[in-house]
Amino acid sequence: MAGPEAGEVSAAAGGAALVLPEPYVPGSGGKVPAQIGWLLRGYAAMAGGAFAAAWAWGIAGANIIAQQNTQGDLGVTAVCTLWGLAIVFLVQRIRFSRLLRRPRAACAATVTACRNGRRTLILDAPCDGYRPELTIRLALWTPRPMLQPGENVTIYGHAAGTGSLLVSSPLRGKAFLATGTRQALPSSHAGATRQFSGPAPDVEASGDALAEWVGSKGLQLSLHSYEQAAVDAFLAAIRDTFLGVKKPPLTSDEVRNKQFPTYRLGRGRPGYDRKQVDAFLAEVEPRLAAWQRPAMDDVHGDTA
Q1: Cα 25–chain centre separation
Q2: Are 271 and 228 spatial neighbours (Cβ–Cβ below 8 Å)?
Q3: Which residues are 113's β-sheet partners?
Q4: Alpha carbon 215 to chain centroid, angstroms
Q5: Phi then psi for 149, rounded to 5 degrees?
Q6: Which residue in 108, 58, 63 sits closest to 79, CA to CA?
Q7: How far apart are CA 203 and CA 205, in angstroms?
Q8: How many other CB atoms are found less than 10 A from the CB of residue 159?
Q9: Contacts (Cβ under 8 Å, ≥6 apart) of 157
Q10: 84: closest CA among 47, 29, 30?
Q11: What angle is formed at CA 48 by the lines to CA 44 and CA 54, rounded to 5 degrees?
Q12: Is the torsion defined by CA of 26, 31, 32, 33 positive or negative?
């Protein structure tokens, strides 16, 4: 297989080579490539086939049990297995469809290794809070040629590269559906990017002191958590408010009522610990209100 694939790659790199189409981008509104559409239909067909087989087996098993007065444990196990397979295929088909319909985060990565006949790939795809090694498994019925070590690709999906993914290869002009998994960094290691800043400053502290306190606040990673990027963005907005550079500034009411996207326990996506974030914002709120009170008094005085 190395010969034809190498020939294709070299032809694509040559000056007189056939111009390859741009790989599909999720949420772009473009037409879904035929090979991906065929793959989605394959998942739907397998789900339908498993459902039909489960119904047929269940009806046949019920007749046998009624005629022979037996327990039929084997038949029940077979029906449950077929139903389980049908649900797995159907859920995966739905996840891939959602992936293709909506704009997704893009991340550059490099293929570093292949396994299982190149259907399992190891990518080097750095991401905050996770180990750089991303393992992806190409979807069933993915046609050859597949990716090889050393190729640069773009992956679309969750920012961490987990769950359903679209792997785009500009070199081949193709995109492949896959699922990705990777390990999160230990909390002690991942949390090293944010060091704790010590006790909170006084309520009457200066804006610069409060901004430094917010900017250096340490937050631990947890699986029962708020989305890391959303929390970081809001803390940056609070810091800029204390520095006087955010227009319009945040208010204490916005801090008190702020809600962040959450990660459910067991999804394998670390974010900032919810209780710690809530407790920190509870400390920020009175300090922001006190810091903004003189400006509000001036406004009310001018109005009067």
Answers
A1: 16
A2: yes
A3: 122
A4: 26
A5: -55, 140
A6: 58
A7: 6
A8: 17
A9: 99, 104, 105, 163, 164, 165, 166, 180
A10: 47
A11: 145
A12: negative
Sign of the four-CA dihedral 213, 216, 220, 225: positive
Please enumerate in sequence order all residues whose Cβ is within 8 A of that of 175, keeping only pairs 6 or more positions apart, or say none.
23, 24, 33, 36, 166, 167, 168, 169
Alpha carbon dihedral 46, 49, 51, 54, in 10-degree steps, equals -120
The span from the CA of 131 to the CA of 125, in Å, is 9
Question: Nearest Cα to 201, choosing from 191, 192, 209?
Answer: 209
pLDDT in tens, the chain (304 residues): 343 444 444 444 444 445 667 778 888 777 888 888 888 999 999 999 988 988 887 787 666 665 665 555 666 787 888 888 899 999 999 989 888 888 777 788 888 988 887 788 888 887 655 677 888 888 888 876 578 888 888 888 876 667 888 888 888 888 888 988 877 655 444 443 444 455 677 666 777 777 777 776 667 766 667 888 788 888 888 988 888 888 888 898 999 999 888 765 444 456 788 888 888 899 899 988 888 876 554 444 444 4
Cβ neighbours around 168 below 10 Å, total: 20
pTM of the model: 0.54
- Within the chain, residue ranges assigned H as helices are 2-13, 34-68, 73-101, 187-190, 207-215, 228-243, 252-257, 274-303
Domain range summary for the chain, segments of one domain joined by +: 32-102, 105-181, 187-303
What ranges in 21-72 are assigned the alpha helix state H? 34-68
- What is the DSSP-derived secondary structure letter of residue 184? B
- CA dist., res. 32 & res. 285, Å (int): 48
Distance CA 250, CA 257 (A): 12
